[in-house]
Amino acid sequence: MGGGAPQGGGPGAASGHPGLTPSLPPPQPGPATGPPGRGAGDGAGQRAGAGPVPDPHGPPRPRHQPLLLPGLLSPPPVFQDNNVLASLPLQYSQQQYQRQDLELVVALSVTLGLFAVELAGFLSGVSMFNNTQSLLSLAAHCSASICLSFFILERWESATYWYILAFCSALPAAFEILLFVSVFGFKRKPL
Asked: Is the pTM of this model over 0.70?
């Protein structure tokens, strides 16, 4: 064959011009198995009387899961800048920015400390089976997740975070501390 002959089912082969013969049969309808050139109709990936040969690399696996991990582990201060800027006037100094930034960092640190108190109470068994603490903690943390979503997405002022902290973190932690005192101080059952 000449160098100018179209390969496969090109435009010359489909029109039926004399002297132009395709080297491959036209593709058959059906799912392709494998890389280009090894489709279902070219005969290169099939055995007589058998279905398509499986891909040697195995079935496709999801590869996006490792990419989700950094998003889950990214700390909240990534979004901190927007909330600090929302707390400042249009014309502000570097000192004002640093003061607002420090205030938000302190609030986030207090939140982590209160969460550690709740976690310690739960893991020690003090509040693990206490229905009141469970309901209070569940309601507080569900409302906190909603409020923090709005806090980040709507760029609320950083002072608003203190209200979220008071109602959604400090309240369950204070009840947890009362349970600690009740169980370890007065030797009462955790229930």
From this structure: no
The domain tally of the chain equals 1
Q: Would residue 146 count as lying in a domain? A: yes
Residue 28 lies inside a defined structural domain of this protein: no
* pLDDT one digit per residue (tens) for the chain, 191 residues: 445 444 544 454 444 555 555 555 555 655 555 455 444 444 454 455 555 665 565 554 444 334 334 433 444 555 678 889 998 999 999 999 999 999 998 998 999 999 899 889 888 888 888 888 889 998 999 999 999 899 988 989 989 999 999 999 999 999 999 999 998 888 877 66
Domain that holds residue 143: 78-85+92-185
- What residue type is assigned to position 96 of the chain? Q
Residue 2 lies in a domain: no
d(CA 101, CA 163): 17
